[in-house]
Automatic annotation (TrEMBL):
Cellular localization per UniProt: Membrane
Protein name: hyaluronan synthase
Enzyme Commission designation: 2.4.1.212
Any one GO molecular-function label of the UniProt entry: hyaluronan synthase activity
Matching InterPro entries: Nucleotide-diphossugar_trans
CC terms in the record's Gene Ontology section: plasma membrane
Gene3D superfamilies noted in UniProt: Spore Coat Polysaccharide Biosynthesis Protein SpsA, Chain A (3.90.550.10)
Cell cycle listed as a keyword: no
SUPFAM superfamilies per record: Nucleotide-diphospho-sugar transferases
GO biological process: extracellular matrix assembly; hyaluronan biosynthetic process
Residue spans crossing the bilayer: 12-36, 42-65
Chief place where the protein resides: membrane
Amino acid sequence: MPVQLTTALRVVGTSLFALAVLGGILAAYVTGYQFIHTEKHYLSFGLYGAILGLHLLIQSLFAFLEHRRMRRAGQVLKLPSPRRGSVALCIAAYQEDPDYLRKCLRSAQRISFPDLKVVMVVDGNRQEDAYMLDIFHEVLGGTEQAGFFVWRSNFHEAGEGETEASLQEGMDRVRDVVRASTFSCIMQKWGGKREVMYTAFKALGDSVDYIQVCDSDTVLDPACTIEMLRVLEEDPQVGGVGGDVQPPGKGMAVEDDQVQAAQVRATEAWSVHQRHVSREQ
C-alpha cells in the first residue's frame, strides 16, 4: 500500500476515533447513566467513567504498538557512526567575578571530550585585568600544555607604542600560543566582545573543525561538547547547536563542597567554524 494512502487512512481513522470518543463522553455526561453506585454516591462508576477508561486503554495500546514499531525500525536502520571532529572552546572574559571565572574554567577542565582546546581571551590588558590571567594559571596553568600572551593590541587596533613590525609579531605570537597550547589565555587591548571572539577565531583559523563559545560566567556540563557535536555530525542539515541554558537560581553542584552555581548550566552558545577558513588579507 502506498505510503501516502497509509498516512491518509491513519489520519482519517484517528480523527473518527477522536470524534467517537467525544460523542460518547458527551452522551454519557448528558444521560448520567451509572453502572454501580453507593448510597450518597460516595463511590460510583458509570458510562462516563467507562468511556474514559476505554479511551485510556486504547491510547496505551496504540502507544505500545508505535513504540515497538520505532524500536524495530531503529534496529533495521543502522546510522553511520559520526566522525569525531576537533573542537576548541572559546571563553570571552571581561572584568569577571573571580569566583564565577574559577567555576567556568574548572567546568571547562571537566568536559568529557578528548583533545579539547580551551582558549580564553580577556577583553582588557591593564593591570586591573591581570587577576583573570592569575586565575587562568591557578586553574589551567602549571603544565607545558598551558600558554599565555599579554598583547598590547588587538587585530583591529594597535596599542600604545606598537609599530607595524611589532603589531605583526604580536599577531603571530597570538596564533602560535593558541595553536600550540591545549589551554591558552590571551589578554588584549579592550575592543568589546566581538573583538574578543574575532581574536579566538582568527588565531584558531582552520586548525579545528568546530568552535564552541561561552562567557566567563558560564558553568558547562561535562557532556555538553560531545552531545552537541553528535547532533552536528549526525545531520548535515544542522549548521549550529545551542545548549540547554538554565538561568541563575536553578543551581548546579560544581564544587566538591556542593556549592550551588549561580550561573548557567550548559553552553551559552555553540558556533560552527568553517572547516576551510579563508584567511583575511
